[in-house]
Design goal:
The protein has ten helices and 17 strands. It is of the alpha/beta class. It has a domain of 224 residues: Alpha-Beta Barrel (TIM Barrel), CATH 3.20.20. Strands 1, 10, 11, 12, 13, 14, 15, 16 and 17 form a nine-stranded mixed beta sheet that branches. An eight-stranded parallel beta sheet has the order 2-9-8-7-6-5-4-3. Helix 8 links the parallel strand 8 and strand 9.
């Protein structure tokens, strides 16, 4: 089907990835308005959506810049015309630093994170070799409990002093991401842990700001703690990503608003078709591991409504629908729509979003950062 526009979404070939533009825009507006009202900026994470068109939409609606996880994502976004990109993961090998320098020559606003002395010196050395006065903006990545990347908080000042001595590096601030807290089900527990960890980092940031005039950015947070972390005055920007889509993992946590995270609604769904229905209480659909990533919560069936069907993975190509009541079992050819388990890696399984408004197709967006993992 080449011309999707105005097609009813339930007539599409499956499996396919749907994005409800109305809900997407509402989610973006809610986050921007909430943060701006509390004196914070949004730098959303493009690793969630892997799409330059969507990144541009976020900027147009008020985001101050964009985050990416890897340099290949930054290259794609820069080539698409985006600027003020923060690479939130380390850039450590000579090959990747050379790619970074090429990117810096195109976009002087690029920012990276660093968390060790060897990497800092290597970056400065390779930049100095170019003899063209290139300056690279850096944030110190601080470990606040995830233990994935980041320097221990006690060593932050020492790294800051080293960066300040590097002629080709500019210390612009810090990053501190608590990914280990984002999906804690209890809002009270999540709040206690996040405030406790970030309050300690805020003291370090205040000291750096006093001693180093260029140190102005405190970048942190995510969809699970955005409404908690705004209470820290020193924080300048938040890196939430999944709020635009939501998934069963995030929908399952408490928020300050209710026992489930209902401020943002699910805009991202997978459409699938029943391909076999010979068993008494089991049906098979064409969306399995290659269509819905197996991580986080269990995908929820939202169409047909009140179907009393439970999804489970049934291999690479197929999903299993188990009927709680025999009368709810679907027939072959019937369509099923599901909220994803984990939005980020599910997106990376597809080449495009099929955009919808209501039940009608409104266009396509390429997932042009798909596969950018290096």
């Amino acid at each position: 089907m080449e011309n999707y526009n105005n097609t009813n979404k339930y007539e599409l070939d499956t499996p396919c990835l749907l994005l409800d533009l109305e809900i997407l825009e509402q989610n973006i507006e809610k986050m921007i308005s909430y943060l701006n009202a509390n004196g914070k900026s949004l730098r959303p994470h493009a690793k969630t959506h892997k799409c330059s068109a969507l990144a541009k939409k976020q900027i147009e609606m008020g985001a101050k810049g964009i985050c990416v996880a890897k340099i290949s994502e930054a290259e794609k976004l820069a080539n698409a015309g985006l600027r003020n990109i923060l690479i939130t993961g380390p850039v450590v090998t000579k090959n990747k630093i050379e790619r970074l320098i090429k990117l810096l020559q195109k976009d002087a606003s690029i920012i990276i994170v660093v968390d060790n002395q060897e990497n800092i010196l290597h970056l400065n050395e390779l930049l100095a070799e170019k003899k063209n006065d290139l300056k690279l903006n850096v944030l110190i990545d601080i470990n606040i409990g995830l233990n994935r990347t980041g320097v221990d908080a006690k060593d932050t000042i020492k790294l800051a002093e080293l960066i300040n001595k590097c002629s080709n590096l500019i210390l612009c601030g810090i990053q501190a991401y608590a990914g280990n807290l984002q999906h804690i089900q209890s809002y009270a527990e999540r709040k206690k842990l996040s405030i406790n960890s970030l309050s300690k980092i805020a003291e370090i940031f205040s000291k750096l700001k006093t001693e180093i005039p260029t140190c102005k950015i405190f970048s942190t947070s995510g969809t699970g703690t955005f409404d908690i972390d705004i209470a820290i005055p020193e924080i300048t920007e938040l890196q939430a990503g999944s709020y635009i889509f939501m998934d069963m993992e995030y929908l399952g946590i408490e928020s300050q608003f209710s026992e489930s995270n209902i401020l943002f609604k699910p805009s991202l769904t997978v459409l699938s078709t029943v391909v076999s229905s010979n068993q008494e209480k089991i049906g098979t659909i064409d969306a399995g591991l290659k269509s819905i990533y197996k991580d986080g919560g269990i995908p929820k069936i939202i169409f047909p409504r009140n179907s009393n069907l439970i999804y489970d993975w049934f291999g690479d190509e197929y999903g299993k629908l188990t009927a709680i009541e025999e009368s709810t079992l679907l027939k072959i050819g019937e369509i099923v729509e599901l909220i994803t388990s984990h939005c980020d890696p599910t997106v990376n399984l597809y080449n495009k979003y099929i955009l919808t408004r209501g039940d009608k197709v409104a266009g396509l967006w390429d997932i042009d950062l798909r596969g950018c993992s290096e």
